[in-house]
Amino acid sequence: MMMHEELFDFLSRQRSVGSLRWFLEEPDPPSAVPLTPLQEYLQRLLEMKMLSSDQFDNLEKHTQWGIDFVEKYTKFVKERSEIELNYARQMRNLSKKYQPKKKDEDENKYTWCRAFHSTLNELNDYAGQHEVIAENMMSQIIAELTRYSQEIKTERKTHFHDGRKAQQHIEAGWKQLESCKRKFERDCKEADRAQQYFEKMDADINVTKADVEKARQQAQMRHQMASDSKSEYSSYLQKFNQEQNEHYYTIIPNIFQKIQAMEEKRIERMGESLKTFAEVDRQILPIIGKCLDGMTQAAESIESKTDSSQVIESYKSGFEPPGDVEFEDYGQAMKRTVSETSLTNSRSENKPERSSKSKSKTLWPFIKKNKLMSLLTSPVPRQPPPDPPSPSAVTPDPCPAPQTPKQCKEPLSHRFNDLMTSKPRMQCLRSLRRGSAQSLYYNKELMKRTLGRPTYAFEARQYVLSLKLLSLNAHVRNLIEGSNPEDFSHLPPEQRRKKLQAKIDDINKDIQKEMDQRDALTKMKEVYIKNPQMGDPNSVDPRLAEIAHNIEKLQVEAQKFEGWLAEVEGRMPVKSDTSRRTSTVYETQNSTPPTNNNCAQDRESSPDGSYTEEPSSEVQTSNESKVQPETAESGDEFDDAEEDMLPTIGTCKALYPFEGHNEGTIAITEGELLYVIEEDKGDGWTRVRRNEEEEGYVPTSYVEVFLDSNAKGAITYI
Fold it and tell me: Which residues pair with 688 in a beta bridge?
């Protein structure tokens, strides 16, 4: 009954290692009171638990905390890589946001703008390095730790499973040993009781012999059972001791060593990850340093003097300084009212004088002007330049004597010509319309005071207004479309000259390209004529005609811009200057003697370099272009006559053998050295010479050509 009470008291508590500590914490029982079998069993079980199970629980908690720490560090690195990616993305967007647009391409001519653009490019590379940091962290740290975390979880689970299994096995052996022990104890007690009963029966004389024999056999059987239980208990005890020794000295230490190795490996892996975390940043430091060096070099490349000179070149107008402002005597109107005779005389005398004053006034572009004067001096777009106004509207006097050695007084009609072709501003036209009524009223009053005769200023205003209103539609259309005049007359003279020169250079390049294509096609046609099996010669004629037409158009265009450029420079193009600016294009095309160009007298100059083009120049250009094909054909005959005199322009080495069966070709052998007398013009053939006697064409891909340095630009004869 006592055993059952103690058992239930034990089961009322939790069966865990921590709950068994109450047994050890209680004071030891008095030595006089022996422990019950159940208490001995519980004490032994507790000792086994404290030796193994408790340690497994602690190790399990510690290793789980280590794995959680690895996952926590992995999450930290992942967030760091996301920050790097976001930072790099923002840096790239910032660099892209401030990149120059197409409309701001002119900024590249200033060193400080180029330095800023270089800084933006370096900043873009700088952002790229932060992307590299994020990528390396993802591949070298996050991916590796994620994979290792799964591995260590599996390994930890295996080790603790083996430990739990070994613990359960030793506990099962202990329970079986206790069972054998109790059986042996019970059999021994039964054998003692049977022996006592036999002795009692044997001593009793009243008991029959059969009962005594039965008691004796029962006692022997009980002794035999006790002996068997003893043997079984001894065997199990020996086996348990062996297993227990192996458990505590072999199995459990091995499991603990594996757990220790696993933990050490985890710690080492954490150290490697922390080191990689720093190395990822250190690897890109040299490249970031180069980006910063590039920014520094860009800043050091800024040249303030060069930029200021560039501004001067960009906005240099080329205007001459203005002359002195003359005194305008407004008292002449009072003198006219003295008498009709004096009025008539004064009008006839003063009118030329006033016209002269109006004509001789030179307007300086930087002086503040009223709206009407702004219209008179506005930029002058003309495409093509219109004819000058009829002399009936305003009759200017001849140009008076110059006020300075550099500048001549310009007639007022010239200013009217500029006004007629100027690019209007809408607000100026509106103000002109609003002001016209007031000026009309004022002039009517003035006409009353002057006996009804309109003044010169009134006529000028009316003339200006009529010219402006006539060209309003075309000008408004140009203003809306944002187009500029073809002759760049909206620019100051110096800037206009640069634009015209650049346009001429571009046209000359296009002419040279067309001429190269024409030469190649002409050469191909000759090859087709000599070898009909290679192609039809007539198939090249449409393309040649198209190229000739393109060259003619480009030459007319170039001559037009040459005329505008010469007008800006204050002179008409002469043959030497034209050939100097257009390189050798016209030397090879226009072999006819040039006609005298007297359009300098047919153009009327203006302060900004504008002029009125006469149709005679276009007729002359078209005539020259019509003569051009004939001169080209006559040049071919000269080339055929001088074909044997072609000089060598280099050497070549044959890379492959070529038999040269077709007419006009020459056979070569591999490694043979030949003279080059005509290089490839795009048709795939090179003309060579052997021993000053034999000449012919070979495929360009079959030879390696070495041109002489002084043969650059040599003339190719077809």
Answer: 676, 696
